[in-house]
Protein backbone atom coordinates (compact mmCIF):
# COMPACT_ATOMS: atom_id res chain seq x y z
CA UNK A 1 0.00 0.00 0.00
CA UNK A 2 1.28 3.45 -0.95
CA UNK A 3 1.56 5.94 1.91
CA UNK A 4 1.53 9.57 0.94
CA UNK A 5 4.18 11.70 2.66
CA UNK A 6 1.44 14.29 3.26
CA UNK A 7 -0.88 11.93 5.09
CA UNK A 8 1.11 9.78 7.43
CA UNK A 9 -0.63 7.89 10.17
CA UNK A 10 1.06 7.22 13.43
CA UNK A 11 0.78 3.73 14.78
CA UNK A 12 1.24 3.09 18.49
CA UNK A 13 2.10 -0.36 19.69
CA UNK A 14 1.36 -1.32 23.23
CA UNK A 15 4.14 -3.09 25.02
CA UNK A 16 3.25 -5.89 27.34
CA UNK A 17 5.39 -7.28 30.10
CA UNK A 18 5.65 -11.02 29.98
CA UNK A 19 6.02 -12.83 33.26
CA UNK A 20 8.75 -15.46 33.10
CA UNK A 21 8.12 -18.81 34.69
CA UNK A 22 9.80 -19.33 38.07
CA UNK A 23 12.39 -21.61 36.51
CA UNK A 24 13.59 -18.82 34.17
CA UNK A 25 13.44 -15.88 36.61
CA UNK A 26 16.76 -14.20 37.39
CA UNK A 27 17.77 -14.57 41.04
CA UNK A 28 18.08 -11.27 42.94
CA UNK A 29 21.59 -9.87 43.25
CA UNK A 30 22.81 -10.48 46.78
CA UNK A 31 23.63 -7.26 48.64
CA UNK A 32 26.43 -6.98 51.16
CA UNK A 33 26.11 -4.80 54.24
CA UNK A 34 28.45 -1.82 54.48
CA UNK A 35 29.66 -3.20 57.77
CA UNK A 36 31.21 -6.16 55.97
CA UNK A 37 33.61 -4.05 53.89
CA UNK A 38 37.26 -4.86 54.40
CA UNK A 39 38.89 -2.91 57.22
CA UNK A 40 41.55 -1.37 54.94
CA UNK A 41 38.85 -0.11 52.57
CA UNK A 42 36.87 1.37 55.46
CA UNK A 43 40.00 3.15 56.71
CA UNK A 44 40.54 4.60 53.22
CA UNK A 45 36.95 5.88 53.30
CA UNK A 46 37.47 7.42 56.74
CA UNK A 47 40.48 9.38 55.49
CA UNK A 48 38.11 11.13 53.08
CA UNK A 49 35.29 11.70 55.56
CA UNK A 50 37.11 14.55 57.30
CA UNK A 51 37.83 15.48 60.89
CA UNK A 52 34.47 17.19 61.63
CA UNK A 53 32.49 14.01 60.99
CA UNK A 54 35.04 11.71 62.59
CA UNK A 55 35.18 13.81 65.75
CA UNK A 56 31.45 14.48 65.98
CA UNK A 57 30.70 10.77 66.00
CA UNK A 58 28.68 10.63 62.75
CA UNK A 59 30.65 7.93 60.96
CA UNK A 60 31.96 6.09 64.05
CA UNK A 61 28.40 5.61 65.33
CA UNK A 62 27.24 3.74 62.22
CA UNK A 63 28.42 0.33 63.42
CA UNK A 64 31.26 -1.38 65.23
CA UNK A 65 33.35 -1.94 62.08
CA UNK A 66 33.05 1.73 61.09
CA UNK A 67 33.98 2.76 64.61
CA UNK A 68 37.06 0.56 64.46
CA UNK A 69 38.06 2.09 61.11
CA UNK A 70 37.50 5.63 62.42
CA UNK A 71 39.81 4.90 65.36
CA UNK A 72 42.53 3.36 63.21
CA UNK A 73 45.72 5.50 63.39
CA UNK A 74 46.02 5.44 59.59
CA UNK A 75 42.74 7.38 59.34
CA UNK A 76 44.38 10.30 61.17
CA UNK A 77 47.46 10.87 59.06
CA UNK A 78 45.93 14.10 57.71
CA UNK A 79 43.89 16.28 60.07
CA UNK A 80 42.04 19.24 58.55
CA UNK A 81 40.67 21.61 61.23
CA UNK A 82 40.25 24.72 59.08
CA UNK A 83 36.44 24.59 59.04
CA UNK A 84 36.05 25.36 62.72
CA UNK A 85 32.33 26.19 62.41
CA UNK A 86 31.52 22.74 60.99
CA UNK A 87 33.76 21.09 63.54
CA UNK A 88 32.26 22.77 66.59
CA UNK A 89 28.66 22.45 65.40
CA UNK A 90 29.18 18.75 64.90
CA UNK A 91 30.72 18.38 68.34
CA UNK A 92 27.82 20.23 69.95
CA UNK A 93 25.32 18.02 68.16
CA UNK A 94 27.17 14.93 69.38
CA UNK A 95 27.07 16.04 73.00
CA UNK A 96 29.27 17.92 75.48
CA UNK A 97 32.97 17.88 74.77
CA UNK A 98 36.09 20.03 74.52
CA UNK A 99 34.46 22.31 71.93
CA UNK A 100 31.58 23.35 74.18
CA UNK A 101 30.57 27.01 73.93
CA UNK A 102 31.73 27.50 77.52
CA UNK A 103 35.30 26.55 76.60
CA UNK A 104 37.54 29.17 74.91
CA UNK A 105 38.38 28.32 71.34
CA UNK A 106 42.10 28.07 72.15
CA UNK A 107 41.44 25.40 74.79
CA UNK A 108 38.89 23.66 72.56
CA UNK A 109 41.42 23.40 69.76
CA UNK A 110 44.04 22.08 72.18
CA UNK A 111 41.59 19.39 73.30
CA UNK A 112 40.80 18.35 69.73
CA UNK A 113 44.50 18.21 68.82
CA UNK A 114 45.14 16.05 71.88
CA UNK A 115 42.36 13.66 70.84
CA UNK A 116 43.63 13.49 67.24
CA UNK A 117 47.21 12.89 68.38
CA UNK A 118 46.04 10.12 70.72
CA UNK A 119 44.06 8.38 67.99
CA UNK A 120 46.90 8.77 65.47
CA UNK A 121 49.49 7.26 67.83
CA UNK A 122 52.20 9.54 66.50
CA UNK A 123 51.39 8.98 62.81
CA UNK A 124 49.97 12.41 61.94
CA UNK A 125 51.70 13.66 58.80
CA UNK A 126 49.74 16.82 58.00
CA UNK A 127 47.70 19.26 60.10
CA UNK A 128 45.73 22.21 58.74
CA UNK A 129 44.94 24.58 61.61
CA UNK A 130 42.19 27.24 61.89
CA UNK A 131 42.98 30.94 61.74
CA UNK A 132 43.10 31.48 65.52
CA UNK A 133 45.72 28.76 66.15
CA UNK A 134 48.90 30.07 67.78
CA UNK A 135 52.43 28.99 68.64
CA UNK A 136 51.25 26.93 71.61
CA UNK A 137 49.31 24.66 69.27
CA UNK A 138 52.34 24.38 67.00
CA UNK A 139 54.52 23.51 70.01
CA UNK A 140 52.02 20.82 70.94
CA UNK A 141 52.26 19.33 67.44
CA UNK A 142 56.05 19.41 67.62
CA UNK A 143 55.90 17.42 70.87
CA UNK A 144 53.17 14.91 69.98
CA UNK A 145 53.66 14.53 66.21
CA UNK A 146 57.33 13.77 65.55
CA UNK A 147 56.61 12.56 62.01
CA UNK A 148 54.77 15.72 60.92
CA UNK A 149 55.49 16.48 57.27
CA UNK A 150 53.27 19.49 56.66
CA UNK A 151 51.30 22.08 58.61
CA UNK A 152 49.16 25.08 57.75
CA UNK A 153 49.27 27.93 60.26
CA UNK A 154 47.44 31.04 58.99
CA UNK A 155 47.92 33.09 62.17
CA UNK A 156 49.25 36.62 61.67
CA UNK A 157 50.36 37.02 65.33
CA UNK A 158 53.24 34.61 65.72
CA UNK A 159 56.42 35.23 67.72
CA UNK A 160 59.65 34.24 66.01
CA UNK A 161 61.20 32.60 69.07
CA UNK A 162 58.38 30.17 69.81
CA UNK A 163 57.87 29.41 66.13
CA UNK A 164 61.56 28.57 65.74
CA UNK A 165 61.44 26.47 68.91
CA UNK A 166 58.68 24.35 67.43
CA UNK A 167 60.48 24.08 64.08
CA UNK A 168 63.55 22.82 65.91
CA UNK A 169 61.59 19.70 66.91
CA UNK A 170 60.06 19.00 63.49
CA UNK A 171 63.01 17.41 61.74
CA UNK A 172 60.76 15.51 59.30
CA UNK A 173 58.98 18.64 58.10
CA UNK A 174 58.73 18.89 54.31
CA UNK A 175 56.43 21.87 53.85
CA UNK A 176 54.30 24.53 55.50
CA UNK A 177 51.72 27.22 54.76
CA UNK A 178 52.22 30.44 56.74
CA UNK A 179 51.39 34.12 56.79
CA UNK A 180 53.75 36.70 55.31
CA UNK A 181 54.63 37.85 58.85
CA UNK A 182 56.88 34.79 59.12
CA UNK A 183 58.75 35.50 55.90
CA UNK A 184 61.93 36.53 57.65
CA UNK A 185 65.44 35.50 56.61
CA UNK A 186 66.51 34.19 60.02
CA UNK A 187 63.23 32.31 60.52
CA UNK A 188 63.32 30.62 57.12
CA UNK A 189 67.04 29.89 57.44
CA UNK A 190 66.26 28.14 60.72
CA UNK A 191 63.67 26.05 58.86
CA UNK A 192 66.25 25.18 56.23
CA UNK A 193 68.81 24.14 58.85
CA UNK A 194 66.46 22.10 61.04
CA UNK A 195 64.43 20.43 58.29
CA UNK A 196 66.73 18.93 55.63
CA UNK A 197 63.80 17.63 53.55
CA UNK A 198 61.90 20.94 53.46
CA UNK A 199 60.85 21.61 49.84
CA UNK A 200 57.35 23.16 49.91
CA UNK A 201 56.22 26.64 50.97
CA UNK A 202 52.87 28.40 50.74
CA UNK A 203 52.63 32.07 51.72
CA UNK A 204 49.55 34.19 52.35
CA UNK A 205 50.55 37.72 51.37
CA UNK A 206 48.87 40.80 49.95
CA UNK A 207 52.04 42.02 48.22
CA UNK A 208 55.30 40.27 47.37
CA UNK A 209 58.11 42.50 46.18
CA UNK A 210 61.57 41.60 44.95
CA UNK A 211 63.01 41.94 48.48
CA UNK A 212 60.63 39.33 49.91
CA UNK A 213 61.36 37.10 46.95
CA UNK A 214 65.09 37.39 47.69
CA UNK A 215 64.51 36.43 51.34
CA UNK A 216 62.69 33.25 50.27
CA UNK A 217 65.27 32.35 47.62
CA UNK A 218 68.32 32.95 49.83
CA UNK A 219 66.99 31.13 52.89
CA UNK A 220 65.25 28.20 51.17
CA UNK A 221 67.29 27.49 48.03
CA UNK A 222 66.05 23.87 47.76
CA UNK A 223 62.36 24.70 47.31
CA UNK A 224 60.56 22.56 44.76
CA UNK A 225 57.03 23.86 45.29
CA UNK A 226 56.10 27.50 45.96
CA UNK A 227 52.54 28.81 46.28
CA UNK A 228 51.75 32.51 46.68
CA UNK A 229 48.19 32.84 45.36
CA UNK A 230 46.10 36.01 45.17
CA UNK A 231 49.06 38.30 45.76
CA UNK A 232 50.08 41.53 44.07
CA UNK A 233 53.47 40.64 42.60
CA UNK A 234 55.71 42.53 40.15
CA UNK A 235 57.50 40.79 37.32
CA UNK A 236 60.85 41.31 39.06
CA UNK A 237 59.73 39.12 41.98
CA UNK A 238 58.49 36.37 39.67
CA UNK A 239 61.75 36.40 37.72
CA UNK A 240 63.70 36.29 40.99
CA UNK A 241 61.95 33.04 41.92
CA UNK A 242 62.51 31.54 38.49
CA UNK A 243 66.19 32.52 38.36
CA UNK A 244 67.26 31.70 41.91
CA UNK A 245 65.25 28.60 42.82
CA UNK A 246 67.03 26.15 40.55
CA UNK A 247 65.18 23.09 41.86
CA UNK A 248 61.72 24.69 41.61
CA UNK A 249 59.16 22.49 39.86
CA UNK A 250 55.82 23.99 40.87
CA UNK A 251 54.95 27.70 41.05
CA UNK A 252 51.45 28.96 41.82
CA UNK A 253 50.90 32.72 41.59
CA UNK A 254 47.31 32.47 40.42
CA UNK A 255 45.00 35.38 41.11
CA UNK A 256 47.68 38.07 41.14
CA UNK A 257 46.47 41.64 40.79
CA UNK A 258 48.98 43.05 38.32
CA UNK A 259 49.41 42.13 34.69
CA UNK A 260 53.07 41.10 34.83
CA UNK A 261 53.23 37.90 32.81
CA UNK A 262 55.50 38.70 29.89
CA UNK A 263 57.17 36.58 27.27
CA UNK A 264 60.32 36.66 29.41
CA UNK A 265 58.48 35.25 32.41
CA UNK A 266 56.83 32.55 30.30
CA UNK A 267 60.14 31.57 28.75
CA UNK A 268 61.83 31.24 32.14
CA UNK A 269 58.85 29.32 33.54
CA UNK A 270 58.88 26.80 30.70
CA UNK A 271 61.29 24.61 32.69
CA UNK A 272 58.69 24.08 35.44
CA UNK A 273 56.37 21.09 35.62
CA UNK A 274 53.47 23.27 36.83
CA UNK A 275 53.04 27.03 36.48
CA UNK A 276 49.72 28.58 37.55
CA UNK A 277 49.28 32.25 36.77
CA UNK A 278 45.67 33.06 35.80
CA UNK A 279 45.75 36.85 36.06
CA UNK A 280 42.76 38.80 37.32
CA UNK A 281 43.15 40.98 34.24
CA UNK A 282 42.75 37.93 32.03
CA UNK A 283 39.75 36.75 34.05
CA UNK A 284 37.99 40.06 33.41
CA UNK A 285 37.96 41.32 37.00
CA UNK A 286 40.04 44.37 36.10
CA UNK A 287 39.62 46.32 32.86
CA UNK A 288 42.57 48.40 31.71
CA UNK A 289 41.47 51.73 30.22
CA UNK A 290 43.62 54.59 29.00
CA UNK A 291 40.73 57.07 29.26
CA UNK A 292 39.59 56.26 32.78
CA UNK A 293 43.01 55.85 34.35
CA UNK A 294 45.11 52.80 35.15
CA UNK A 295 42.22 50.39 35.62
CA UNK A 296 38.62 50.32 36.58
CA UNK A 297 38.31 48.15 39.70
CA UNK A 298 34.78 46.88 39.33
CA UNK A 299 34.69 43.07 39.20
CA UNK A 300 32.79 41.76 36.23
CA UNK A 301 31.89 45.18 34.77
CA UNK A 302 33.82 47.18 32.17
CA UNK A 303 34.26 50.91 32.41
CA UNK A 304 31.78 53.35 30.83
CA UNK A 305 33.86 54.29 27.81
CA UNK A 306 34.48 50.64 26.98
CA UNK A 307 30.74 49.99 27.09
CA UNK A 308 30.13 52.91 24.74
CA UNK A 309 32.82 51.57 22.41
CA UNK A 310 31.18 48.13 22.34
CA UNK A 311 27.75 49.69 21.64
CA UNK A 312 29.13 51.67 18.69
CA UNK A 313 30.77 48.53 17.31
CA UNK A 314 27.44 46.71 17.55
CA UNK A 315 25.58 49.53 15.76
CA UNK A 316 28.16 49.55 12.98
CA UNK A 317 27.44 45.91 12.27
CA UNK A 318 29.85 43.09 11.45
CA UNK A 319 33.15 44.03 9.86
CA UNK A 320 33.35 43.04 6.21
CA UNK A 321 36.33 40.88 5.36
CA UNK A 322 38.59 42.51 2.81
From TrEMBL:
UniProt keyword list: Signal
Keyword Protease on entry: no
Signal peptide region: 1-19
Segments crossing the lipid bilayer: none
Protein name per the record: F-box domain-containing protein
Organism: Urochloa decumbens
Amino acid sequence: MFISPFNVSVFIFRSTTLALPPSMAMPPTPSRPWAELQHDLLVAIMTRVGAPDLLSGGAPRACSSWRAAARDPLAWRRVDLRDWAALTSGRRAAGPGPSSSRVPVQAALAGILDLAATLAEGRIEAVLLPEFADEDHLLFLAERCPNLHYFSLPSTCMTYDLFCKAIGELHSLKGMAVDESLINYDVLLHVHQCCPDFVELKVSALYVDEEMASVICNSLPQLKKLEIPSSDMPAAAIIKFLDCLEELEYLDISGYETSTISSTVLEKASRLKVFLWNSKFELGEFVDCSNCGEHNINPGEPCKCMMEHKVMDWLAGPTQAS
